[in-house]
Design a protein that fits this description.
Distance between the termini: 66 Å
Structural class: alpha+beta
Shape: globular
Number of helices: 12
Helix content: 25-40%
Oligomer: single chain
Length: 633
């Protein structure tokens, strides 16, 4: 039930992860400050604003907009934070209104992650004010509450920050307005009315999952060491809007709309499918979040009702107590049942969409069992992304979301051959897990090689002991490798020296603006180094070179794919921590180490492997290898 607050009224919050949605009649700046119990800001950097949009447990928009969504995780806030003040301000120098009395009253809604409104407040009574503290979340007796504040400031943002005793209120106000001014070309207009049946919110962004508890990587998943991801199309940098996506023929009245492949914005079908996969990923994440939130609420309500019964001696031992317990359990079952029905409805819709989208995916996005691979032709340009595997959640293991990462790769890959998950620990033979890791490396390397034009992607292999020879045989036989797999310490040294020299030369050429002066033996195409059985065959110098390639290589087209178990390199201690963090970890068996960037669910990852007995990988490698040889590689 939604509570409509009036100024000064408060309401208890039962959830710690919330969204604060703000709607105004025109562009406004939204921010939030962390203050102590007396309302004093915790420090000069404890204000989230467009120029610094994220703090622990808090994230705001980076631009002026007519509609904002602020993300709050109360459990992640600093212990010293007793209040979260949501601040709205009219942007300076835009030619727009200079006082809130000239725009529609701001509307603020505190919602759960599923969009269910907990409390709302319409900020009325503003006139000459150009900044306002709309609402605040505050600690109370071990919990949190929301209060409708509506305190306006005619002196603007500087006065508001000064009232919170910010030591540099005037300077910070100027920086905020400057940050907004830099983004004026991206200001969001007031949202149009939602049409009936328009329930999906899509963002044209790349798809990927991130290590659980971290930030999203270029696939839609995030890693804690990464900054914001650039979701713009790498080959589209102008402001011309893309053509509209295809639409299905109108459905008869009363019939649900049928899903269509490419039902997303984009310049090409490849880009539309890419964005559609991203939309499916987000839809599934939010649907599961709504279900889990509803179950949590039902469990909390049941426990509260049972505690109330048990705390009353008169009803604890009587028939009335039994009836109350049965009623509480019945209400719990009803709430969970309703939530499951809603989830099943969403899953059915997404399942129908997946059934349409999967067959339409291009080779780079498709599973190896997709018929598109049987019609494979060497591409003439690099695709936007490549599929590394599938993602799913426990509530719907049958619905798989393709895990796509942007190309060129922003990070290398680490295929973890250690027994670090329930599935891998169940494998009694560590050699079997290493074999699966080598097979996964070959399947991913073959896919990367096949989706690049001839001569624009080269493969190098370090296999010091030759342990991966059976798995590497398709790459060797097809001529996909730039040279034979390097064996022994001498082979390790030679390959690392060759690629380190390439990184150094290209970096120097780029910095000096003399890319055309590179030596003729320098291959400027993308390079992938597969390192098997690390750290066998590596001395300290080789380890340092490998770290250098993992850190600096992606910027100039050199990427590392490690096949290793972290425990095998434990002798190096924390020295190798930066190396592991620089790589995106994937596993040869199902593992739930990735998290989505919206609600932080753990997603189970499964690698994109070739079906048992299929010859498709050899056929594709044969064509790609022949094209490489004819190109002159």
């Amino acid at each position: 039930m939604t509570v409509e607050l009036v100024r000064g009224q408060n309401h208890a919050l039962t959830q710690t992860r919330l969204e604060i949605r703000v709607t105004v009649g025109g562009p406004v700046v939204a921010g939030a400050s962390l203050t102590d119990a007396d309302g004093a800001v915790l420090g000069p950097d404890q204000v989230a604003h467009p120029g610094a949009p994220a703090l622990p447990g808090l994230e705001v928009s980076q631009q002026a907009a007519a509609e904002h969504r602020l993300a709050v995780d109360l459990a992640a806030l600093p212990e010293a934070a007793h209040r979260v003040s949501v601040v709205l301000a009219l942007p300076d120098g835009t030619g727009g209104p200079s006082r809130f009395g000239a725009v529609a009253a701001p509307f603020v809604a505190v919602t759960g992650l599923d969009g269910t409104e907990v409390a709302t407040y319409t900020v009325t009574g503003l006139d000459r004010e150009s900044a306002v503290v709309a609402v605040e979340l505050y600690r109370r007796q071990g919990g949190w509450k929301v209060r409708a504040v509506g305190q306006g400031y005619a002196g603007g943002l500087a006065d508001l920050l000064a009232d919170q005793r910010h030591p540099g209120a005037t300077e910070l106000s100027a920086r905020i307005h400057e940050a907004v001014a830099r983004r004026l070309t991206h200001t969001v207009a007031a949202p149009p009315p939602r049409t009936p049946g328009d329930t999906r919110e899509r963002a044209g962004a790349p798809m990927a999952a991130a290590p659980a508890g971290g930030t999203a990587d270029a696939a839609g998943v995030q890693d804690a060491s990464q900054g914001p991801i650039d979701y713009s199309h790498p080959r589209r940098r102008n402001d011309t809007p893309p053509p509209p996506p295809p639409t299905a023929p109108p459905a008869p009245p009363g019939t649900p709309a049928r899903p269509v492949a490419g039902d997303a914005a984009g310049w090409s079908m490849e880009e539309r499918l890419y964005n559609q996969v991203w939309g499916m990923f987000e839809d599934l994440a939010r649907s599961v979040a709504a279900y889990r939130s509803a179950v949590d609420f039902a469990e909390s309500r049941r426990e509260q009702e049972l505690d109330k019964v048990l705390s009353d001696p008169r009803s604890r031992m009587s028939g009335a107590g039994d009836a109350a317990r049965d009623a509480a359990r019945g209400r719990y079952a009803d709430l969970v049942g309703q939530a499951r029905q809603a989830l099943d409805r969403d899953l059915a819709q997404l399942g129908e969409e997946s059934a349409v989208v999967e067959p339409a995916l291009p080779a780079a996005y498709a599973r190896w069992d997709n018929p598109v691979w049987h019609a494979y032709e060497v591409p003439k340009e690099m695709p936007m992304a490549v599929r590394l595997g599938d993602l799913h959640v426990p509530e719907s293991a049958a619905l798989r979301i393709p895990m796509l990462v942007r190309l060129p790769l922003e990070r290398g890959l680490w295929i973890d051959s250690g027994r670090s998950s329930v599935e891998s620990a169940a494998l009694a033979d560590p050699d079997d897990l290493r074999r699966r890791a080598a097979d996964t490396a070959v399947a991913l390397a073959a896919r990367l090689f096949a989706v690049h034009p001839a001569g624009e992607f080269s493969l190098h292999v370090i296999d010091p002991a030759g342990a991966a020879a059976p798995a590497l045989e398709p790459l060797v036989a097809s001529g996909a490798l730039a040279g034979p797999p390097a064996a022994g310490a001498a082979g390790v040294t030679a390959v690392l020296a060759h690629l380190t020299r390439r990184v150094d030369l290209v970096q120097m050429a780029v910095r000096s603006g003399a890319a055309d002066s590179l030596p003729p033996d320098v291959d400027t195409g993308q390079q992938l180094l597969i390192v098997h059985d690390f750290p066998h065959g590596f001395d300290d110098r080789a380890v340092t070179q490998l770290r250098y390639l993992a850190d600096e290589g992606p910027r100039v087209g050199v990427h590392v794919m490690m096949v290793a178990a972290r425990e095998d390199a434990s002798a190096y201690g924390p020295l190798l921590d930066p190396l592991w963090r620089a790589l995106l970890r994937v596993t040869p068996v199902p593992d739930d180490h990735l998290a989505d960037p919206w609600v932080g669910h753990a997603w189970t990852y499964e690698p994109a492997l070739v079906p048992s007995g299929s010859q498709v990988l050899r056929q594709v490698l044969g064509q790609a290898g022949a094209a490489r040889r004819s190109w002159g590689g």
